[in-house]
Each structure stands twice: as structure tokens, then as C-alpha cells.
Amino acid sequence: MISVRLILLAWLFACLVAAGLDPYEVLGVARDADEKTIKSQYRQLLKQYHPDKNPDPEAHERFIEVGEAYGILNDPKKRENFDRFGDPEGQPQHNGMGDMFGQFFHGHPGFGGQQGRRRGPDTQVAIELTLQDFYVGKDLDFGVEMLNICESCDGSGSADGKRHTCLKCRGLGVQTTTRQFGPMIQQFQLPCDKCQGSGETIANRQYNVFIAPGTPRNHMHVLEGEGDQNPDWVPGNLNLRFTENPRENWGFRRVGDNLYRTEVLTAQEAAQGGWLRKIHMFDDEIVTLKREKGQAVMQGHVDIVAGHGMPLASDHDEHGHLFVDYKVIPVGSSSREKDEL
């Protein structure tokens, strides 16, 4: 039989649960905050409340709240659902007594709730590649600093590696006070000396990923279940976004499956012809451009070299095209003007 006091405590607790956590308030960002602002604030709070760096007993709870809030705002669909319904899963919030008691007793033994852990946030990592990497492909080995379940205590946070049910509330989360006469026996649970009781550590995880020839710029590669680990959640995904280093492109510009390049000619070459250019491609192939004597080239003219663009992501043996436009150096141009061209 559940006592009246327990029911009242349950009702008060359920009122708080029904109110829910506002991910914007948890992260301290405005409702119109962009992805960059949210991610920056998330990382700052992650460092601030990480149990390895913050001994405050409430830091662990705040750490979990921050992770859950980021998981909502970092997912466009969940964020939209929360903005519309107040629920990341798209269900309008209800404040009835049945809902409140259902939330309170959910997951606690003896009350018919289903136990389960919520899914943790996805982790986003940008990996910078050269245009040559996108062209010929790359077998990439890299490391990422991630949160991992503490191996010493198996995520329990305790020195003996076991999760302990609270002796006072028997895991219900609500304490019923009783008086006992005679000697009092008190038990102590020592925290794990490796993770300081947090159940998790920061470590570098090593991965190997193959970037296929023709992979699109900003392609997202998902490693399922490889997100941050935590005893209180199921790991999310590790999302790898492949960006391009614009400074190492050998003078090429990529637009979809095609490559673009600018070749500079002197006024004499443009007017009289009789020149040859050899372009070294990323796969060591050489493309030859030339004009015979008497063949003029106008400023802005574009040559199309078929089949020498980027490999197609759908078929690496097929390529887009190479577009070469010409700029002519006017007679009497200074060295600086020539360099700019």
C-alpha cells in the first residue's frame, strides 16, 4: 500500500517532471540561435560541468541535462517538434494527473513502468580533406577525443564496479522515514579513483574510414552508435563531415562533378597562338592544351575537356568535365598585375 505521504511527494515531483526541461534554457541560448552558437555553447558547458573537472555533486546532473538539450537542438526535426509542441518527439505536452503519475512511476520497480535509457546526443566532427583526396580517394586513419564508459568501474562510478541501490529509498527515489533504536550501521560507497565517480572518461578513439573517389564536398558519413558514451544514455552517432581545404587545390575549382581552371596567356600568345600548356591532374595524368600558330584566343574563352573532371560518386570510372577559361595579360601590365591574374 502506498502511503498518502508518498503519493503527495509523487505528485509534487511529477509536477516538476511535467514542466519538462527547456533545451534553450539549459544551454543558455536564444530560441533563434544558429547551429554554430548552439554547438559552441554546448562545448563550453560540457567542459564546465564534466565530472572530471567539476567536483560539484550537481555537476553530473547538469552534464546530463546539457547533453540531452543539445541532442534536441542539434537535430532539426526534434528542434522543430519542440518549438511546435514542446516535445522533441512531436507529441503535445499534457498536464493531466495520469500523465504526471505515469512519468513519476515510469521505470521504477514495483509500479509497472518499462526501464530504458534515453539516446544520447550525436557528435559532429568536421574532417578537412584536400581536393586531391576527393579526386583519388583516401584511406583515412584519425582519432577523436570522446567520452567513454570508464573501464575501471564499468560505468558504475563505484570502486567495486557495481551499481548500488539506495538503502534508504530502495531505488524508488522517494524516502519514507523510519526510526530505529539501538546501534546504527552506516555503509559507504567509495567513488572510482579513475573517473572520480562519474562513470566515464575522456579518451582518444581511433577510426579508419575510406573516402571514395568523387565523394561530395560536405558529405556526412555516419558511424552509428559511436557517439559519446555515458552510463545514463545509449550512445548516439558520430557524424563525420568531410570539408575541403580551399588552399590545396592545385589551381582547380570544384563545382559538382566538374572542375574549373583559369589559364593566363600573354597578349602575344592570345593573338598569335603557337603555345602549349601541360596541366597535371590529381591522378598524375597530364592534360595538354595548345594553339597552333595563327590560332587566336579571346579573353574569357572556355575550353571543355570532356571526361577530365571529378570522378562520379555513383561510378568512379566515369568523370565530369574540365572547364578551362582564359585570361589575357594586357600589354604593359605590371608584374603585380600579372601575378594577380
Report on this model:
- The relative contact order is 0.12.
- β10 (275-280) and β11 form a beta hairpin.
- A 4-stranded mixed sheet has the order 8-9-13-12. A 3-stranded mixed sheet has the order 2-7-5. A two-stranded parallel sheet has the order 1-6.
- With 341 residues, the chain is α/β, with parallel strands linked by helices.
- The chain contains 9 helices and 13 strands.
- The termini are far apart.
- Among the domains are: 119-167 and 189-249, Sandwich (HSP40/DNAj peptide-binding domain), CATH 2.60.260; 252-340, HSP40/DNAj peptide-binding domain (Sandwich).
- Mean pLDDT is 75; it is low at 4-19, 92-115 and 163-189.
- GO terms for molecular function: Hsp70 protein binding; unfolded protein binding; zinc ion binding.
- Residues 22-86 form the J domain.
- Residues 137-219 form the CR-type domain.
- Keywords: Chaperone, Metal-binding, Repeat, Signal, Zinc, Zinc-finger.
- A zinc finger (CR-type) spans 137-219.
